[in-house]
Amino acid sequence: MSSALAISAVTASLQYFLNAVCNAPSSPLGGVSVSAVAPDIVQSTITGANNVKAQVNLFLHQVTPNGAWRNVGLRSVDSNGNTRLGNPPLALDLHYLLTAYASEDTQAEALLGFSILMLHENPVLPRAQISFALSNLPSSNPLASVLGASGLAEQIEMIKITPASMGREEMAWIWTALKADYRPTFAFDVSLVLIRSPLALASPLPVLSQNITVQPQSPPAAFQIVLPGGEAAALPGDTVTVLGQFNLGTVQVLLLNQRLSLQFPVTPSAVTGSSISFAVPNNAPAGVYSLSLTVTNATGIVLQSVTNLPIALASTITSPATATVVANTAGSLVTVTCSPQIVAGQTVSLALGGASQPAQPFTAPTATVSFQFPTLSAGSYLARLRVDDVDSPVGVNFSATPPTFTGPFITV
How many CB atoms sit inside 10 A of residue 35's CB? Predict the structure, then answer.
């Protein structure tokens, strides 16, 4: 594979070959300048209609992904987005405009003819010629000393040149966008350039031996998560039950919060063939988690991981009776204490009765959060703390008629 210098190396190689053809000792063209800049830059050097030096310009006007290679080598990182598993190649097709500049009769046509013939007779650039060109670039090229190490000549795919079909309207649109006077132009494509990142990869050790055993067994499965009291979210320390089948060999429950890139492995407290019980970690921040089970057989070999069961963990307001409400110029600043701590990056809001306000900014894990409300009237408000779309629990007295809330309340 080539390095990020490969695109520049293709242009420099073509420029070298065009210069060799146009300024060959047997060429009748005389001294020809071969450049590789945008046409508007060439335009800026022309001082008059009759003062145009013989020049061939190579302009890369577009780069597109190669359809045949764009899905090769996927994927590049693991599911957590942190460990690099591979460096998939970046496969590109290059689209060029070859333009001739001259002020004498038929001179531009001659320049274009010699240049197009060179491209026609070299539809595939040999690796040795690419290496020779990149090793003998003129000193006027600012990258002459480094393009030889681009790896272009060594990439698995060879460089192929094909004429491009470009209509008059497309050609006119390009030259209008370039804000330069139109000159005789030939469009062609170069395919393909393979660029690969030099980043380090995770590389597993070779397999020394293969021990494959087949044991007939029904696959484990988990169907339902049962929370204490039928609540919608679990609290720190709650015992959660997972219902399923064939889970007798469960050795670990894993809670994964992809949004915060946090995971909490938990050892089950009770395991049967149809249920697993475990305690929610006290330090797991509130939010929506993905629950997975690791199931082994009698010999300790992992049979399967049952994944993608969503479970919500909530924060709880620990001291509503001591919550502070301070009057200020903006209204009422309400401060509450919660458990577990809230970490930076979480979305937090507090609802008092029917009004809700977002938390004041914080940058470190905290158990004390403040919320700026408009001026609150005196009274008692039912408080609900929402962290990453999971609400803290509220108490309800269902024996009353009608049922009534029992807290937590914040008094103003």
Answer: 20
